[in-house]
Each structure stands twice: as C-alpha cells, then as structure tokens.
User: Fold these one by one.
Assistant:
Number 1:
Amino acid sequence: MSIFAKPVADISAADLLELLTENSVENLRLEFKREITAKDETLKKLTSFANTMGGLVVIGADASSGDGRIVGLPGVDPKSGYKQTVVQWCFDGASPPLDVEVSDAIVLPSAGGRVCYVLGVRESELTPHFLNGRKGVYLRTNEFSARYDAQLANENELRHLAQRRQIVRERRATLIQRSRDRFDTFVKQKYGELGKRPGGIGARFDLSIGPRFPAQPLCGHDRLLSIVPAKRISWRQVGFPRTTGGGFISQHESVIGLRPGSSFSILEANTWGVLFYASEIEREAAREPNDIQGIHSYHFVGQLLVFLEHARLVLDELGYVGPLTVEMKLDAIRGVPWITFEDRMAVTGPASQLDDTVTFSLESTVDELINRRDALAVNLLRYVFFATNLTDAVSAKDLEAYVRGGYSYNTWGTPTRLQI
C-alpha cells in the first residue's frame, strides 16, 4: 500500500485510486471519511492515531458501513484554507499540540472538480494527547466493535502513554546535562590559557531554549552546521557568534561554538532543537583601586538578550513553531556582588548570601520568542534578581530599564519601544 510509503504532501490521486483497486479496508492506521468532519470529530481521530501507532485519514473516500472497505472516491467540494484550519485545530485543541500533515486538495479524475484531502499524524512520543475542555484521551482501537474507531483510553492505557512522554522529558534533561558537562570540560581544558583568575572560572550562567518535548530531531547534522554559525548578530562591534576565539566544532548530535561571546563562553545547538548558551559573568577587579569585582548587571543582561536573539533566529530557520521550555542556571554566585549603576557610577550591590547555584525554568512559545523577546527577558530577569537578592530591581519599570541597559551594552542603540 504505497500511501504509507511517502510523505502526505506527495500523495497523489493515483495513490488513492490504488486504495480503491486493492479494496483496502480501514485498519489501525487508516480511516476513510465521506465528508469533511467538524473540529471535535477530527481531533478525536487524529489524537487517537497519535496516541496509538500513527495513521492517515482520507477525506472524500466512501467506505462500507459493515466492514470499513473502501467502495468509492466521490470526493468533497474544495474547502478554502482547510489545511491551515486543521493545523490550527491541532495546535489549539489538543494538549500537547499535534504535529499534523495535511495534503493539498487532491483532484480526482472524473469527479466533477471534487477533491480528496489526506490528514496524517505519526505515532507520538508526547503522549497522552488530551482533547482540551475535559474531552479525554482517545486511542485507535476495535475493542468495542468490528470497526476501528477512536475510543477513550482506560487507566492502564493512560499510564502506558504517560511513560512514553516521560522518555521525552528525560531526553530533554539529558541533552541539557550533556551540554553542561561539555562546558565544564571546555573550562578545564582551556580556561587557564586566558591567564585569568588563579582560582579558575568565576560566577557563570547558562541558558537553554528548545522544544518542550523534543520527540524527534528537527534537522540533520549537516544542516545544523550550515545554520548556526551563519546566524550572526550585530553585537559590540565584533558580532555574535564571533568567528575568532575557538570557532565551531562538531560533536555527537551537536554543533558547538567555542568562545562565541565575551568572557569565557560556549554555544551549542543539537539536532533535537535544544540550544544551549553558557558564559562566565563575574568580572575581576583590575589594578585600578576604584574598579569593582562582581557581576556587571548590564553585561549579564546584554548576554541574555543576545542569546535569546540568536535562539530566535535559529529556531525560526529550523521551522519549529511549538511550545518552548527555557531553563537557566547560575553557578558559583555565593558572595559575588552585583555591579549596579547610580548616576552612571558603578557601585557594589547585593549578592546571594546562601545559595551558590540557582536553576529555574519557564514555559514559553516560539511566537513569544519571535514577537516578544524582551518580555521573555524581563520574566527571566525577575526570577534571577529575586533568586540572587537584587530585590530592588524587580519592579516592571526597573526591569525594563535593565533591558534598555542591555541594549546599550550590546551597542544596539536605544530602543524607542521594547518588544513587550
């Protein structure tokens, strides 16, 4: 049955006629619908496929009510915007959203201008997919009749689906930890070459941004290698990522930029779409007696903004449009003061007194990252400043002022309006 051997976008009228010639029968992975179905019915079918073994729905195909065998291809009237409608249903009407493929209108011979549509979903690792509005979780089964249909999952089935989702959650945690381990290895190998502080690297932070559920790779290794270095941002007259200081290397599933930014830093992008940035943020006191040691607040905010901007460009190029998890970790921060500014004069601010490491995460979307990047930065800064005792800087007005300071530090000019 060639309809399963090609992408939905490549299915043709000949493939549908083959179903008719072979007297194909509805099964665990195939369903025929005579007419275009409404939103809830469509979502029941598609989530049941995703929660089971994946499958296809052929719209405009007539099947016998007795055994589900295809008996004709009468087609349906073309529906303007149908593909976009189904994609939107699957994004808004299921949790987590469904990754659905919808064919263009497939014109049938001798059907008077009527067409078929094919809807396809793969077996999902993000299960269970719920229908929003307390409408339950559906599986593809023939337990209650001779015909395959979407049925509500029972307790044992829900438990099994949740285990499948847990695997994906664990994958994300593993990918981030691998990036942190690589940064630690890089520090041990190369930090001493910079001739910096005798005690080793100082306070640092890392930021990871990627799909909430990395169920499948977003691209191949070769494409990743062409995308990540090419997404350069105007930044402090040198650009980000910098082309000097270490360059890019290839590691398992990942492309890694060495010292892409200021201080001692790293950038990693993997084929699953998870982006990782890390940098030292503690500034050493220079020989001048009035210089201050600590975390330069505008330097920190500027790096946060440039990391978010780079992630925005990469994820947009990869074509990912779903929910994001943004995770941040600050390390070696105990007793390291913030350097803040009063009337343009640097002063020593508060420091974390007890915690040496802080980790937190936020749920976001690609849409927020693309259209409201500064709002995402404000939310992250609010967590950071509360966590590290800089409580005088957490009002909305103060946080926006820090973002503007980050713009200035990055030499991005003074924005007339933030992306909030």
Number 2:
Amino acid sequence: MRSSGAKLFLVIVCGFEDAIAKIEALGRELLLPLRVFCSDRISDSDKAFHPGATVFETDYDRGQALQIAREKGEALEKKWPLGHGDCQSLVIFFSNCPNNTLPIFYKAASDWKPLFVRR
C-alpha cells in the first residue's frame, strides 16, 4: 500500500496516560500516520482513591471515602460503581460528565441527587 502523505491527528482535552499509549500503539499497529495531542494527561495517581493521590489527607480518610463511594456507586451503577473501567476519574466538564467519573457525581436515583447530572 502506498502512502498518500495524509496525516491523522487526535486532539484530546484530557486522558489517562495508559489509554493514550494504547491509542498510539494501535495507530502504529494499523500503520496509521497518527499523532495524538493531549492537553492534560492524567496518571494513575490522579484516580480518586489511588494511594498516591492528594485528594485525602490520610489513608483512613481515603478508605472511608472509598467505602462510601463504592456502596453508593453499586446502588447507582452496578457494573462500574467507581466509574466505567474502574477509572475513579474526577473529571467533569462544564457541558457534561464522562461515564468514567465516579457515578456518585453524575448518576441520579430516587434517593440520590448528583452534583453534576450526566446528559
């Protein structure tokens, strides 16, 4: 197959580093002239309950919050109580909320009103 010289760009507002690496690897595997640009790369330590995250002051606080988020998350979203793919993301955009964010932030129920409703 001859190359047309075309270039393919993927521009991302924010994304997890491992997901971006998978996209880049798939582009190479498919021999695509793909370049990925990401404004804000998110690492595992940016996950809500990661031991390296700075969201909580103590491990005890992190454990307590994880228990609450998991229990309520299971009631809201059985398959992914901590966000799609267990991402534990804390990303919220002004226009919507990604499904890999903690469901307690975006999913409504009869006994739960989220801060950021997913549309």
Number 3:
Amino acid sequence: MTDQRLPTYFLSHGAGPWSYMDGDFRERFAALEHSLVAMRNELGDAPKAVLMISAHWEENGFAISSAAQPGMIYDYYGFPDYTYDVHYRAPGSPELAHRVERLLRDGGMLAWLDAERGYDHGTFGVLKPLYPAENMPVVQLSLNRNLDSGLHIEVGRLLAPLRSEGILIIGSGQSFQNLALRDARARVPSAEFDAWLQQTLLQSSPGERRARLLHWEQAPYARLAHAREEHLIPLMVAVGAAEDEAGSCIYREQLFGLMTAASFRFGPLPLAGQRVDR
C-alpha cells in the first residue's frame, strides 16, 4: 500500500501584505510567488486543509484557531492604507482544530482552542498566492513563547499523523530575519547562515539534522540572522513532523539583492493527482 503522507514545508513568507500589493514592491517577491504557485501545482488535489504555524502568533502554550470563519489581523506597519482592509476569506476548520488539540494534549502539551484568532500576515501573505480561490480550510497553531527548539520539534512529531489525513503542515517564518540589517551588511551573514541551513536540512542525516537544529545558535552569524528566533522556530515543527525524511530547497534567492532567503520541503511529494486551481 502506497503511503499517501503529505510533505511538510517551511516557507519564508516575505514582508507584510506583499501578495496583496502591486507594482515594484510586489515584483520584488516574484520568485517567492512563483515558488508558491509551483508548490500548489506539485501538491495537486492531495491537501484537504492547511495547518499553519506562523511566526506571528505566540502564547504561553499552544493555541489553535477554531473559528469557522476567521477574521483578519493586520500585524504590520508602514504599508499603504488599502492593505489594512484586505481580506483572506478561506474558511477555518473547527473539526481540524479539535483534532490538533487532542494530538497535542495526548502528547502532554498545554493546548487550547481560540475561537477569536484571525489570520495574521504570516498566514494570509503566503496563502493568497498558494490558494488564491480562498476555499482551502485553514487552522493556525501558535508558537510557544519560550521558543524552545526541542519542544517545537516534539510538537511536529505529535502532529505527524495529520500528514496521512490530508493535512498540509506549513511552518511560516523567514530563513533570515533581521529588520535592523536591511542593507549590504546583510549579504555575508545571510549567505553564511543559509549555507548552514542548506547543509543541515539537505545534507545531514536525520540525527545530525536534529542535533544541529537544537544547537542552531552555533551556526555562522546565528544571532545576526535571528536576534530573536520566532521566525526560525516554525521550521522546527515542520522538521519534527517529517523527522526521518529528506529535505529539499524549493525557493532560494538574494531577496532585495541583499539577503539570502529560502524555503524547504520535507518528505516526498504525493502521487501526481489532478491539478486544481484553488
């Protein structure tokens, strides 16, 4: 019997509401947008829903969005006025939210449902080009505010059964995140940290990969790449849910011509299915 587990993903999600914008700013994310369209096409009709772990939601435990129709959270500043009135209208999934809660609680995690949480830009920024028809059900999972790498790898392990149930697990963050370093000074640190990520995620054995991620602060320029690691921690969940499976890089560029950004897939693609334009 063929294993129909979905792969997991870690996506660098870009800046603010880029996918709702036009002109030069949107064009700067053309390669990222292309990678998201390619991701949709390679998955075909296999996913039934998305579980999104966004860098932009932290709690003292693990909260799960459970609204049937989540609202919006405009958690960015300095963008055009119209970007504070955009809407991503994909439905939530209370059923999936309860399933996630049970898996985490059965694994000893502090987890609860949050019927008020809306979509933040770590979620809708990438889902708009990934599922533009806005009909793919989406549930969001918070990070634990302690940002412990091992804990979030374990959360991924607990959530791994969802992959065989048609649930697409996505960690949404940024492979290099230093808002104070958005000029030529970012080139070397981001390239060196990316080289470490590529070796860790693509070339290391599962055991090595886990050990390196647990000690990610030993990577070159680690704290220049992530002064605070909330944009890296969603990667730990994606890896934990596909811990023994190979990684591949699905997007990599020198964003803005200044900083290296990358996205990764873990595990094989599902058997080719009918292409769907969601």
